[in-house]
Amino acid sequence: MRAAVNHPDHGFCRDCLTPQQSGVRRCAHCGSPRLVRHPELYKLHLAHIDCDAFYAAVEKRDNPSLKDKPVIIGGGKRGVVSTACYIARINGVRSAMPMFKALEACPEAVVIKPNMEKYARVGREVRAMMQALTPLVEPISIDEAFLDLAGTERLHGMPPALVLARFSQALEKEVGITASVGLSYCKFLAKVASDFRKPRGFSIIGEAEATGFLAEQPVTLIWGVGRAFASVLERDGIRLIGQLQKMDQAELMRRYGSMGSRLYHLSRGQDERVVSADRDSKSVSAETTFDMDHSQLDDLVPVLRALSEKVSARLKKASLAGRTVVLKLKSSDFRIRTRNRQLGDPTRLADRIFTTGLELLRKEIDGTRYRLLGIGVADLCDSGKADPPDLVDTLSHKRALAEGAMDALRDKFGRSAVETGYTFGKGHRGKPARPGEEDEPEVRHPWERI
């Protein structure tokens, strides 16, 4: 079906895709109230798609008895919320909230430990559906991505807005989850639009309305303006984006440095970033939260080893290596420490990740009690450049061969088939106590919010 030309009187029904004229509140064909109209509806082609409460949605899909119940995906009482379904959110549960607070807000919630393998599998299904729409798909996380559908109208026989609506239908029917779509002329506003009217949203921000729309929004809508920087702006009397629009670029840069330039451009809806399908991962990491705080090296070393092996496995599977090892610790008062060390050559070996992380960890054993430990590798590159022979450490080659043999046995018989002395007999994945929150490795990207 070919839609009408760009005209404010024309739109379509999101449920049956039938064209609609102005003045009607329900679809003349199917009676649905989910109609889409906008003056630039058939002109815009840059979209952000964000699956709704992804982890929780997958669990509800696989267990229909959870459909009308509040569901929280996360760890034990000392973990944090990974995802909360919208029923739980109505009760005050939010992502990254400590689990004990989430259960105080919603004591009747069903708590499910994350199954990252399953979520990654569903995420690949969703990604494949996106890539069928356009080759320009830029993943942001496992469940969201930017898409540029410019030039695809002849391929699909319909403009991008209709293609996206059809994608949403297919996602619900074929995968069993929902997503919200933001359509605009730039990445910044496409991401902003996708956050409107969740779940199952379809929102549009056109170029003509951008400045006026932004003027009424709080400064925290701008990427990079978190709680701390918002406080700085508020001390200067700036709360709304409209106030930034009245300031010139030189003044903003004088006050806020390079961030001032971003404030100037984004406050005016100016974002020149393009959708890039080749955007690389920034790091690969794994972390875990304990059920009890720990301050002793003997308790933390087995966990560090287990997490190093998980990071190594993910690197090997993706044919990646990294030059910088990053240690992350969170103390009992929720203060985060990150320490890093750059290696002479990139690595993907658990042994090198662990030994480097252990050197960093030893320096942090000062009596502080830690509730979280993580290890990661950054500055990623192709694994072909990883772990060359070490002329100084002559045993490194033998350790690498031994690790390769362990990998082969684990691939054949499972991860628990072979353990090192660091983790043997130490409990689940090296933890000194029963497992807390999910500790699967995760790939982090440079643009996590926008």
TrEMBL record:
Active site, per annotation: E144
Subcellular locations according to the entry: Cytoplasm
Site (Substrate discrimination): Y55
The keyword Secreted belongs to this UniProt entry's keyword annotation: no
Cofactor: Mg(2+)
Single GO term (MF): DNA-directed DNA polymerase activity
Catalytic activity, reaction form: DNA(n) + a 2'-deoxyribonucleoside 5'-triphosphate = DNA(n+1) + diphosphate
Matching CDD domains: PolY_Pol_IV_kappa
Record domain UmuC: where: 46-226
Top-level taxonomic group: Bacteria
Alphabetically ordered keywords of this record: Cytoplasm, DNA damage, DNA repair, DNA replication, DNA-binding, DNA-directed DNA polymerase, Magnesium, Metal-binding, Mutator protein, Nucleotidyltransferase, Transferase
Residue positions binding Mg(2+): D50, D143
Cofactor: how bound: Binds 2 magnesium ions per subunit.
EC code(s) of this entry: 2.7.7.7
Disordered, as annotated region: 421-450
Pfam families: IMS, IMS_C, IMS_HHH_1
SUPFAM superfamilies: DNA/RNA polymerases, Lesion bypass DNA polymerase (Y-family), little finger domain
NCBIfam families given in the database record: PRK02406.1, PRK02794.1
Function: Poorly processive, error-prone DNA polymerase involved in untargeted mutagenesis. Copies undamaged DNA at stalled replication forks, which arise in vivo from mismatched or misaligned primer ends. These misaligned primers can be extended by PolIV. Exhibits no 3'-5' exonuclease (proofreading) activity. May be involved in translesional synthesis, in conjunction with the beta clamp from PolIII.
Subunit structure: Monomer.
Family listed: Belongs to the DNA polymerase type-Y family.
Protein name per Swiss-Prot or TrEMBL: DNA polymerase IV
Gene: dinB
